[in-house]
Structures are given as structure tokens and as C-alpha cells.
Amino acid sequence: MKWVKVATLDDLWEGDMLDAKVEGEEVILIHREGGRIVCFQGMCPHQEILLADGNFDFVKGTITCSAHEWEFDMKDGRGAIRSAASSSSTT
What we know:
This protein is mainly beta. The chain has no helices and 7 strands. A 4-stranded antiparallel β-sheet has the order 4-5-6-7, with no helix packed on it. It has a 3-stranded antiparallel β-sheet with strand order 1-2-3, with no helix packed on it.
């Protein structure tokens, strides 16, 4: 692994997200509350949809893919916490 500069702190304020391409791969950087910056794969593994186009919920700490609502943990990037579409109840 090697470090690649994609932004400065002036580019990424606390509570912001930035998408970038690093060596041909999409990544997202998130500046979380408290100053922690995390970086994850920028594409949803389900259908290669840009996660930067999804919903970022800093209260819940999740990123939701815009295509099929797969959720990913903003702390560590682990994915599909749950699919919001599949968790709705049916009667």
C-alpha cells in the first residue's frame, strides 16, 4: 500500500465528502465529526454505482447507495449493513 495525495484539509471540511479517482479506482473520502478522515472504495459492489451519488447520513453514520439502497458503515466502510428496500414490511 502507498499513500496518494488526493485533497488537502481545505478541500475537505468536517462533515464533507469528496470523491476522487486514484490510479483508476473511484474512492470517497469522508471527514467525520471529531476530525477523523476515512477513505473507502467509491463504487457500490452491487452494480458499480458511484457511492458519492448516494445519501450520506452523518447522524446514523451510513452511506446509502442511490440505486438499490444498500447501506455502508461510515466508520469502516463495511457494506451492506442492510438494504433499506428489503427491510420494509409487507402485509
